[in-house]
């Protein structure tokens, strides 16, 4: 399959180039030239398939032309060594729990898949050129991306990862997950906000001198190998619900999905799933106080601005990179986007109130991001619909915030406790690209 740039000025790329390079030469994001519709037989039998079987069928539609079947199956099955269950919260609202992977966040799916696919292409390139040049992965994180990418690539030969994160703006547990690893993982603590980290990464890709010095790629959702695999769990959520309704001998209601949204790679993957035939009636994009996309839906004008810090920190993005993909997917048609996606935006106080309400009424513990999703879904779902909100990270990753709001003492899972035993290792950095470039030029 061929990939074009959202800016329309870069050469067409194959999957290997799109994955290894990350960003197109014209600073645009790569998009597949076509999106295959999966056959009806797949949806007729989806309820009887495992998560891995579903994901392999979806992956084949995107990557099957570029990766041999056996290797792709190995990549998919190795990526999904954990489940993403659907859990009933109340009435017709379900949580899609995406925190059962190694770092307890939804990004484990995309990061683990990308790590394995990138390694596949690097081995292929090395076989063709007899070269073993190191690839350097740059990733900006507002919290969960850094830990998922760092742990997905940890110990992978030929790859070094630089995780850029905003100083003092990720939770202590999140920080532990990528600053204590060592080996081929370097944490870069930027004196700024997430948007500054993202700007440093993008500027690095565009700097000719730096790219001559070292081979760079990205593991943010700007990379097609990071965001496309996130479509897997949308299909899985539908399959699990369909199975429940079939077992109860009831017809499947209209399916609605609410996605807490920051950089918009996650909901973009869901929109791709819909284009592939997944019967999603509509999507809801839930925002915190960083409401740029919500305002776009109301006005038709996209006006990015600096992000503000909230208790749902992974969504603190003022200029979502993947808006460009959503815009391209709908041929820049505002009304078409509004037809498939509605929006919502919530203050810290509203998020906290929702967490308390859900916990009191159902006993279910939402993390701040999931609470945004639950509230947006509960305010918009109709009686004839069934809805899923994405619970994107384990509440214990935000233990201090969750405990203060719920007056609780959330247990820290063993996976997280293990990270907390390590010693922090990070490189302090200003938000000035000249400083970041100078640092990388010494590596």
> Oligomeric form of this entry?
single chain
Question: Which structural class do you get from the secondary structure elements?
Answer: alpha/beta
Average of pLDDT: 93
- Approximate helicity band: 40-55%
pLDDT below 50 for ≥5 consecutive residues: which ranges? none
Rg, please? 21 Å
**Strand adjacency order, main sheet:** 4-5-13-10-11-12
How many strands?
A: 14
Tell me about the biggest sheet?
6 strands, mixed
| Principal-axes shape call | globular
Cα separation of the termini: 35 Å
The proportion of residues in beta strands is 15-25%
Number of helices: 20
Annotation keywords:
443 residues, alpha/beta, six-stranded mixed sheet, five-stranded parallel sheet, 14 strands, 46% helix, globular
Describe how the helices and strands are arranged:
Layout: E1 2-5, E2 13-14, H1 15-21, E3 30-32, H2 40-45, H3 51-63, H4 69-79, E4 86-90, E5 93-97, H5 107-129, E6 135-140, H6 144-153, E7 159-166, H7 172-179, E8 185-190, H8 194-206, H9 208-213, E9 215-218, H10 224-227, H11 232-247, E10 254-260, H12 265-275, E11 280-287, H13 292-299, H14 323-329, H15 334-340, E12 341-345, H16 348-362, H17 368-380, E13 385-391, H18 399-406, H19 414-420, E14 426-429, H20 433-441
Parallel strand pairs: 5-13, 6-7, 6-9, 7-8, 8-14, 10-11, 10-13, 11-12
Antiparallel strand pairs: 1-2, 1-3, 4-5
């Amino acid at each position: 399959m061929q990939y074009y740039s959202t800016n329309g000025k870069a050469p067409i790329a194959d999957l290997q180039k799109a994955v290894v390079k990350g960003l197109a030469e014209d600073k645009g994001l790569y998009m597949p030239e076509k999106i295959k519709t999966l056959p009806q037989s797949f949806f007729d039998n989806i309820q009887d398939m495992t998560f891995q079987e579903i994901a392999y069928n979806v992956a084949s539609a995107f990557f099957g032309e570029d990766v041999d079947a056996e290797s792709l199956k190995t990549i998919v099955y190795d990526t999904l060594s954990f489940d993403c269950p659907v859990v009933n919260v109340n009435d017709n609202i379900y949580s899609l729990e995406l925190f059962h992977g190694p770092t307890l966040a939804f990004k484990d799916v995309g990061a683990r898949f990308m790590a394995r696919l990138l390694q596949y292409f690097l081995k292929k390139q090395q076989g063709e050129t007899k070269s073993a040049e190191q690839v350097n992965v740059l990733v900006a994180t507002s919290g969960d991306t850094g830990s998922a990418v760092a742990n997905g690539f940890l110990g992978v030969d030929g790859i070094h990862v630089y995780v850029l994160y905003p100083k003092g703006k990720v939770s202590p547990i999140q920080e532990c997950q990528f600053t204590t690893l060592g080996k081929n993982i370097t944490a870069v603590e930027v004196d700024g906000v997430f948007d500054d980290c993202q700007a440093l990464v993008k500027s690095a890709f565009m700097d000719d001198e730096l790219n001559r010095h070292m081979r760079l790629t990205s593991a943010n959702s700007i990379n097609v190998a990071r965001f496309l695999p996130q479509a897997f769990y949308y299909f899985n959520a539908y399959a699990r619900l369909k199975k429940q309704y079939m077992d109860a001998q009831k017809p499947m209601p209209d399916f609605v999905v609410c996605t807490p949204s920051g950089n918009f790679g996650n909901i973009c993957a869901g929109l791709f799933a819909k284009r592939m035939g997944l019967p999603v009636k509509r999507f809801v994009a839930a925002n915190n106080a960083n409401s740029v996309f919500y305002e776009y839906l109301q006005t038709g004008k996209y006006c990015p601005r600096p992000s503000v810090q909230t208790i749902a920190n992974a969504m603190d993005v003022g200029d979502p990179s993947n808006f460009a993909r959503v815009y391209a997917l709908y041929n820049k048609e505002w009304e078409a986007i509004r037809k498939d996606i509605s929006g919502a935006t919530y203050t810290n106080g509203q998020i906290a109130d929702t967490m308390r309400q859900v916990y009191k009424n159902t006993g279910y513990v939402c993390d701040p991001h999931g609470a945004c999703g639950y509230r947006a879904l509960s305010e918009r779902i109709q009686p004839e619909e069934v809805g899923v909100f994405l619970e994107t990270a384990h509440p214990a990753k935000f233990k201090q915030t969750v405990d203060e709001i719920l007056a609780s003492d959330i247990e820290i899972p063993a996976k997280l406790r293990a990270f907390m035993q390590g010693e922090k290792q990070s490189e302090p950095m200003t938000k000035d690209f000249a400083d970041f470039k100078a640092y990388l030029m010494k590596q």
